[in-house]
Amino acid sequence: MANKGPAYGMSRDVQSKIEKKYDDELEDRLVEWIVAQCGSTVGRPERGRLGFQVWLKNGIVLSRLVNSLYPDGSKPIKIPDAPPTMVFKQMEQIAQFLKAAEDYGVIKTDMFQTVDLFEAKDMAAVQRTLMALGSLAVTKNDGNYHGDPNWFMKKAQEHKREFTESQLKEGKNIIGLQMGTNKGASQAGMSYGRPRQIIS
């Protein structure tokens, strides 16, 4: 936003720790997915954290990405014809992506803040959000995901089990191994060392 000078002292240490969390290999995977998902019209960024940030900064690529995860006719974000050049319009576009990602199912703790991307404060958080979005898209398996499904971890899904009354009654008669067993329990042969010597 405003021109900021270099950080010093503790601020500099904190910022350098945040920057070390950024993963270059993950960047390559995310770029491959975004290009596969949106098509080659989105282009490719220059390699590195700042190249990735500049590519996503105006929010258009992110908006196209989240729109591509929805079927035609139900796209959540309206994308302007010309990329926004004014700062607040770019930040608004990023905010629309964040809202659409949350509606898609990304949880709040996986979301980045607008300034994390716009001012490159925490690009690792941007990577986390995109990874969460990709994992959800693979898990939903609704035909809108494009790319290699092995790029993302599938999220665990609920697997309900139904038991009959007779099965539940049978379960009450079994002692679970978590409670231990007393088969063959005996104190025979146990010794606790030498007995205490009492000398009078």
From TrEMBL:
<keyword id="KW-0007">Acetylation</keyword>
<feature type="domain" description="Calponin-homology (CH)">
    <location>
        <begin position="24"/>
        <end position="137"/>
    </location>
</feature>
<keyword id="KW-0963">Cytoplasm</keyword>
<keyword id="KW-0514">Muscle protein</keyword>
<comment type="similarity">
    <text>Belongs to the calponin family.</text>
</comment>
<dbReference type="GO" id="GO:0005737">
    <property type="term" value="C:cytoplasm"/>
</dbReference>
<dbReference type="InterPro" id="IPR001715">
    <property type="entry name" value="CH_dom"/>
</dbReference>
<dbReference type="Pfam" id="PF00402">
    <property type="entry name" value="Calponin"/>
</dbReference>
<dbReference type="InterPro" id="IPR000557">
    <property type="entry name" value="Calponin_repeat"/>
</dbReference>
<dbReference type="InterPro" id="IPR036872">
    <property type="entry name" value="CH_dom_sf"/>
</dbReference>
<dbReference type="Pfam" id="PF00307">
    <property type="entry name" value="CH"/>
</dbReference>
<dbReference type="InterPro" id="IPR050606">
    <property type="entry name" value="Calponin-like"/>
</dbReference>
<protein>
    <recommendedName>
        <fullName>Transgelin</fullName>
    </recommendedName>
</protein>
<dbReference type="InterPro" id="IPR003096">
    <property type="entry name" value="SM22_calponin"/>
</dbReference>
